[in-house]
Amino acid sequence: xxxxxxxxxxxxxxxxxxxxxxxxxxxxxxxxxxxxxxxxxxxxxxxxxxxxxxxxxxxxxxxxxxxxxxxxxxxxxxxxxxxxxxxxxxxxxxxxxxxxxxxxxxxxxxxxxxxxxxxxxxxxxxxxxxxxxxxxxxxxxxxxxxxxxxxxxxxxxxxxxxxxxxxxxxxxxxxxxxxxxxxxxxxxxxxxxxxx
Length: 196
Prior knowledge:
The chain is mostly helical.
């Protein structure tokens, strides 16, 4: 790597490593050390081709996704993690929006724990769809699967998250907790009695 490429690479790492690490940690199920390893390997791969890369961040992110896909394919299905105590079902709306901010931190911890108990594929799909805000077609292309697989995996992953962390329902209240919306007038015509 020549001096100009080296400077460009170091500047990229300095400016973008925090955001890339967040994505890598999410892809790794909340394990910071695994996320750091994932990002380090991606940056090593990118450094060797740095002078040929047009869009560095997109390139490094794609390496992250593909490495994570390779990891889950090699490891096979991960067994569910058992914990000594289930999450606290007593978490209510007051706690979630607590004035001291602890409610938001608790929800983040619950979400991290729930994500870590998903399979790597489920986690990758959710991170790409909702954290990276990518359309289904892009997720399918990055993960090397069909759009239908992305849709079904997203559906199953969200259902699994609801089971693993019922506290997350506070982020999206159920129908009975939502304020009642005014109903549009009915277009059905009731029979009218006609008198002669």
